[in-house]
C-alpha cells in the first residue's frame, strides 16, 4: 500500500486522492437519485448522503489495493 503519491514532484497523501474520487462518485449518485426522485424514500437526506460517501470511500480504498 502506498501512503504517498508523487505527482510531478509534489507528494500528495493517497487518502486525499481517494476522497476526491469518492466525492465525485457521490456527486454523480446524488444527481441520479435526485433526477429519479429516490430521495423521497430516505428519512434523513444529509445522513444518507454522508453514509453513501463513506461507503464509496471504503470501496475506492479497497479497490486501490488491487490497482497499485
Automatic annotation (TrEMBL):
Pfam families tied to this protein: DUF1656 (PF07869)
InterPro entries: DUF1656
The organism's place on the tree of life at top rank: Bacteria
Transmembrane segments: 6-25, 46-64
The entry's keywords: Cell membrane, Membrane, Transmembrane, Transmembrane helix
Protein name: Uncharacterized protein DUF1656
Organism for this UniProt entry: Bradyrhizobium sacchari
Amino acid at each position: 500500500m502506498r501512503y504517498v503519491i508523487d505527482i510531478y514532484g509534489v507528494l500528495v497523501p493517497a487518502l486525499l486522492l481517494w476522497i476526491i474520487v469518492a466525492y465525485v462518485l457521490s456527486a454523480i449518485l446524488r444527481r441520479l437519485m435526485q433526477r429519479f426522485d429516490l430521495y423521497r424514500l430516505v428519512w434523513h437526506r444529509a445522513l444518507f448522503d454522508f453514509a453513501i460517501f463513506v461507503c464509496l470511500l471504503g470501496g475506492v480504498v479497497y479497490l486501490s489495493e488491487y490497482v497499485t
